[in-house]
Amino acid sequence: MIIKPKIRGFICTTAHPGGCAAHVNRQIDYIKESPSIQGAKKVLVIGASTGYGLASRIAASFGMGADTIGVSYERPASEGRTASAGWYNTVAFEESARAAGYIAESINGDAFSHEIKQETLKLVKEKLGKVDLIVYSVASPRRTHPDTGETFNSVLKPIGQPFSDKTVNTNTGVVSEITLEPATEEEIENTITVMGGEDWSLWLKALEEADLLAEGVTTLAYSYIGPEITEAIYRKGTIGQAKNDLEATAHTLTKQLERYDGKAYVSVNKALVTQSSSAIPVVPLYISLLFKVMKEKGLHEGCIEQAQRLFGKLYSGATVETDEEGRIRLDNWEMRADVQQAVQEAWSGITTENVSERGDLEQYRLDFLQLFGFGFDEIDYELDVNPDIQ
Ligand code: NAD
Fold first, then answer.
1. Is 220 annotated to bind ligand?
2. What confidence score (pLDDT) does residue 281 get?
3. Which residues on neighbouring strands pair with residue 144, listed in sequence order?
4. Whole-angstrom Cα distance, residue 101 to residue 269?
5. Residue 43's domain spans which residues?
6. What distance in angstroms lies between residue 138's CA and the mean position of ligand 1's atoms?
7. 3-class DSSP state of 143
């Protein structure tokens, strides 16, 4: 099969196995070139196949020498269709990690379900014994509740009043005004059910009941805050309510983990191009302006640089530095006053005509393509490849 990108709105419906492997291997190379970290050795990553979860898994194995089990929900190849990028990433990660001598096992299925939790516990017991780090990095538009079978959908909407601002179609470069209607109470609740902390605590409960938590265990989940520009749609919107819930869950979990001398943290990460963030209105425009500013200031990072910095902070041996809410702040460079001021200046008066000059749409598009294994110079996209790899 000759595989080319097929972009529909903010998703790409194809993925390239060789390109995804190149993406994974670049991240592995970055970690191998970074100083190694004495940290976790037995790691479970939930949401391990793309974005922050994949980067965490790579940094855990190649940076800390950890054996890993990854859970994700990806599509295998089928008649005439490529697998999803996360599928190919997982295959590539397992191959490289195993070649380097680490245990790397993966489970593909719905992490929200009791069945996948039980299957994972069995595998953890068999392959890892107890775990000393659990990274929770699931991002999903829906969740079927394991007890009731009811399916909830999350929405990306403002709360209280309509919100209008500029957005960009990253494919065409057209900047336009978008108005989003406020969420209903039910939509807010549903978004919290999908993206809040309940499933994270169900994972910890299941691991504890199966006696799979090691002494000194750490668990991590990821959040975002962001600037005033995206506040109405992000932090003060429906997803922000879910993140408040996730952050509150960290405090509850830390209490529960006291008997293991363990700790639950939320790390507030930087805005980056991932399959999840590209679906949020307004955010891709903000990201393309942010990238330009951060690159100019030599502060630009991707998921892998963030994961490496995070583990460096967590396992430095010193007290883990947090903000007054107990969160680790990996967004400290994004939120620096000089960075935000420059982004704000670029934002005011942004139009289709000046967006390419004020923002880094090229980098945005390349990052987006690379999420699906496209845009790598070392890959010949004219070659016939087998999409069905396991
Ligand atoms: P992503 O879309 O790249 O990754 C999502 C992962 O979740 C994938 O591995 C996917 O397979 C898995 N997943 C989805 N539904 C699942 C299910 N039902 N069962 C099992 N696995 C499932 O997303 P991301 O951007 O890396 O987001 C991860 C976390 O990081 C989220 O909490 C997100 O809010 C947070 N975060 C993202 C950004 C950003 O800019 N992208 C910034 C800060 C924080």
1. no
2. 86
3. 151
4. 30
5. 7-158+184-282+298-332
6. 4
7. strand
